[in-house]
Amino acid sequence: MLYGNIVERCMEVIREVCSTNYVDIINGNISPDHVHMLISIPPHLSISKIV
Hints:
Layout: H1 5-20, E1 24-30, E2 35-40, H2 47-50
Antiparallel strand pairs: 1-2
């Protein structure tokens, strides 16, 4: 379950991974049981690589 400090840490990790791979986060939402993200991925990366 994603609550409290876990949500904050999850957001930190997501931002770090996206920044490292030059991925832009357009929109996102963390719910207690899942994460929604709209991202812009550079053409040289595959979706499976980012996920």
